[in-house]
Amino acid sequence: MELDPATNSLTQASIESLYQVTNLDYYNRLINLAVLVLLNALLFRYLLMYFPQLSFLTAMVSKLVKPLWYTFLFLAAAFLVFATFLYVMYSAQNNDFRNFVVAVAQSVKFAQGGASNWYELYTEYATLYTIVNLIGFIVIQLMLSNVPLAVMLSHKKEKDLRQNYSYHRFWAGEISRMGKGRGEFNPALINEKEKDGKEQGR
């Protein structure tokens, strides 16, 4: 870097050099992120589709992908709403919320407990800051963050039920009463089918 002796500031060549280095660093991080995502996607693909020993994992993921996708959509919507509140509150005063994309990144940082300037934000809007963070903590941390675990546990319960129902006399009687094979019978859906039958009878 060179300084202009007349104005004691950076020369135009130094500013252009710093701008090029900043762009190079940005694209370097972007390429590293793209490579990381690509490698993880390939690992996920080969684990699910290439190895025949992991066919049970493929069946499990095919059942879980839809409810987990909906959970991710609700979680993303909650982050967007939280980021919108922060952007509206602090975009005019704080540089950390200068645009909506940065506000979304800050909302993720807030949700992970990494907000370092929280006291400065609190002093600007004490009551509103407390209300927004309290609602975000209840909705994101206490509710939506635990939904994927509940979905996976419910599918694990269904898997255990389907593996062990044949040892109980009640389920053996239900199979013979419904006239289905063991591969077609799902004990986890027995109440839903009875409700559908009652509604059609009405």
Question: How would you describe this structure to a colleague?
Answer:
By secondary structure, the chain is mostly helical. Among the domains are: 16-50; 52-147. Helix content is 75%, strand content 2%. It contains 8 helices and 2 strands; from the N terminus they run ββαααααααα. Strand 1 (3-4) and strand 2 form a beta hairpin. Helix 2 (55-90) packs across helix 3 (100-111) and helix 2 runs antiparallel to helix 5 (126-143). The longest helix has 38 residues, at 12-49. The protein starts with a strand and ends with a helix. The relative contact order is 0.05.
What is the tally of helical segments? Answer: 8
Q: What radius of gyration results from the CA coordinates?
A: 27 Å
Element-level helix/strand string:
EEHHHHHHHH
β-sheet strand percentage: under 5%
Major sheet size, sense and barrel closure = 2 strands, antiparallel
| Unreliable residue stretches | none
Q: Give the strand order, joined by hyphens, for the main sheet.
A: 1-2
- Overall number of strands: 2
Distance from N terminus to C terminus (CA atoms, Å) equals 84 Å
Secondary-structure class:
mainly alpha
Mean pLDDT comes to 77
The shape, in one word, is elongated
Helix content: over 70%
Transmembrane segments: 30-48, 68-90, 128-153
Protein name: Polycystin cation channel PKD1/PKD2 domain-containing protein
Organism: Alexandrium andersonii
Keywords: Membrane, Transmembrane, Transmembrane helix
